[in-house]
Design a protein that fits this description.
38% helix, Rossmann fold, 3-stranded antiparallel β-sheet, globular, 221 residues, alpha/beta
Length: 221
């Protein structure tokens, strides 16, 4: 798909519901939706609701280029695994001390979030389950790839990526690391994930915790 004439998603909740409807009817084994905070949790909450699946998070953070903090040169996962984008060499100053310092900062942020989140809900069991990994979009793919590699070590029955939108080339890279990848749109004219949402406000920690609490309560009702 090349040109998106209209904005396809009202907000992250709408995108999550659309993903859920796309996957509805598919056979899963004890499904678990793992969302990448923070924006991915809004997607995951809606997606898990449609699929009647458990919701949890997988913690991964992008490694920012020192000259452009919005650009991801790679990512680090909860287990400390680092992935670097193939084109990261084009960005000056990403090696050596800069990268090491950025890694330590992001690991610290992961630990901070883990403490908050695990106070709300314990980590879900992954082994033997159909795991659906989601975020609000894939741009560089770094965070998703780091999350995939981390989750794979926990031996899921199957590992599926489900996102509303992705850069086509990055989607293909991700597809090689999972059992299936579902993406509603993969436009060539991709500049930022937010361009495909009418509302794309930042998501705060408090909202992540609220959604996780509500998902846990919803699963018990």
């Amino acid at each position: 798909m090349n040109v998106v004439d209209t904005i396809p998603f009202r907000d992250r909740a709408d995108a999550g519901r659309q993903l859920g409807e796309y996957l509805k009817g598919r056979q899963f084994r004890d499904p678990l939706v793992l969302a990448i905070p923070r924006g991915g949790v809004e997607i995951g909450f809606a997606l898990a609701g449609v699929l009647n699946a458990e919701l949890d998070v997988v913690l991964a953070r992008k490694l920012r280029a020192p000259t452009n903090l919005e650009y991801a040169i790679g990512a680090v996962s909860e287990d400390g695994r680092v992935t670097i984008n193939p084109d990261a060499h084009r960005v000056m100053g990403v090696l050596g001390g800069n990268l090491a310092a950025e890694k330590q900062y992001q690991i610290g942020e992961i630990e901070r979030r883990k403490k908050l989140i695990r106070a709300v809900r314990p980590q879900a069991r992954v082994a033997g389950r159909s795991v659906i990994l989601t975020d609000d979009g894939i741009a560089t793919g770094s965070t998703m790839i780091a999350a995939l590699l981390s989750v794979r070590t926990q031996h899921p029955h199957e590992l599926i990526v489900a996102v509303p939108v992705a850069v086509p080339e990055r989607l293909e890279q991700v597809r090689q690391l999972c059992d299936d990848a579902v993406c509603l749109i993969a436009p060539e004219d991709f500049y930022a994930v937010g361009q495909f949402y009418e509302e794309f406000d930042s998501v705060e920690d408090e909202e992540v915790l609220r959604l996780l609490r509500e998902a846990t309560t919803r699963g018990k009702s």
